[in-house]
Amino acid sequence: xxxxxxxxxxNARQIKLLQENGISTxxxxxxxxxxxxxxxxxxxxxxxxxLIWNARNALGMTDFTPAAKIDDNVEYITTGSAELNRILGxxxxxxxxxxxxxxxxxxxxxxxxxxxxxxxxxxxxxGLNGAVAYIDTENTFSKEKIKRIAKRFELNPNDVLxxxxxxxxxxxxxxxxxxxxxxTLCKTRGVRLIVIDSLMALLRSEYVGIGKLAPRQAVLNxxxxxxxxxxETYNCAVLLTNQVATKMMGMFSSNDAIGGxxxxxxxxxxxxxxxxxxxxxxSLKRRAVIVDAPDLPPEECEFFITGTGVADTDKVxxxxxxxxxxxxxxxxxxxxxQKDQDTEELSNDEVxxxxxxxxxxxxxxxxxxxxxxxISELLAADPEELSASISGASVKTIxxxxxxxxxxxxx
Length: 411
Ligand SMILES: Nc1ncnc2c1ncn2[C@@H]1O[C@H](COP(=O)(O)OP(=O)(O)OP(=O)(O)O)[C@@H](O)[C@H]1O
Ligand SMILES: [Mg+2]
Description:
By secondary structure, the chain is an alpha/beta fold. It has three domains: 4-68, DNA polymerase, domain 1 (Orthogonal Bundle); 76-311, P-loop containing nucleotide triphosphate hydrolases (Rossmann fold), CATH 3.40.50.300; 336-410, DNA polymerase, domain 1, CATH 1.10.150. Helices cover 40% and strands 17% of the residues. It is built from 17 helices and 13 strands. The strands form three sheets. A nine-stranded mixed β-sheet has the order 5-4-6-7-3-10-11-12-13, sandwiched between helices. α11 (213-233) runs parallel beside α12.
């Protein structure tokens, strides 16, 4: 990333004006449309053109590059669900805009909360060690939810909250303003994820009727292009949640994302979330469908919304107490009497791994995927190796499972 003072012919006043308008690096300037820079009070048409050209020259953007030399710097953020990661091509991608749309309670806000935590994980655990800019237009951000998810991933809840820069938004021009501000956070606070939950809620209520469609789309276009530029400049992931409108086609109806072609074309990845139908209204099961992606097949998967974020199962294992002064609600009660009876009749290696304290159904699936299906195999595993292949399980947690497994074996 190059500072603005690297741009030939720029002065301190111009740097300040650009920074005040959310353009904090030479890259951001080089990627800005001329009209955006020219309308900054105090710059003007000619200066804008000169500065943008000089920024592009300084960054070598005025030459074609052989394709072999193009940087392939995509990074991935785990969503908390291996299945969702799989259909997304490895996780939530950086450098691109991802739109997630779906009906109410389909899990959009749950995903936003989950990745706001997982982006803070170290790289080997599926994160980017990054901070978050959270643009909340619906007043649905929840500190408690973040704390629970942090606990699941063995992060300190207060540290996690201190790296989520939250803005409650009240109007569409406030939304545009804070998108610009988010750019500064990318530069100064290491933000690697921008969440807008939701993109269209305020625009939808402010621009009502067909007569307002053109101005609404102009504002939206500006937001989408601004975000796209920020995503690319800072290799930052962007989640845009979106609402749906029901479209009737004769006897049939379908849910379509709102925002029209501007959103459809402007977002690189479009993912639809679905609830599982009326019969399972109380189910936590959800479905995700890849609707559009540059290099991903149109796959689908199931995932769950849990009290500790998005997951592959409704029974997420919580790590052993990590000494945090935070109490988590008990989501899944275990029946100890039943456990004792079951254990008595089975030999050690027939005892299901779920009987080991701290291991639940989700972890058992993960352990099976690593070739561990009984207590002896768990005891023989190397905690460090295992930790690297199971998201959210630290070396400490795995060592604790082994201690608990040994206790169970000897009991
Ligand atoms: N602690 C929890 N444990 C399990 N499920 C939960 C928990 N909290 C919320 N949910 C489920 O998540 C749903 C809400 O999901 P979410 O807020 O992500 O939906 P959304 O797609 O953002 O909806 P909207 O369009 O209304 O914003 C709830 O209706 C409930 O089914
Ligand atoms: Mg929501």
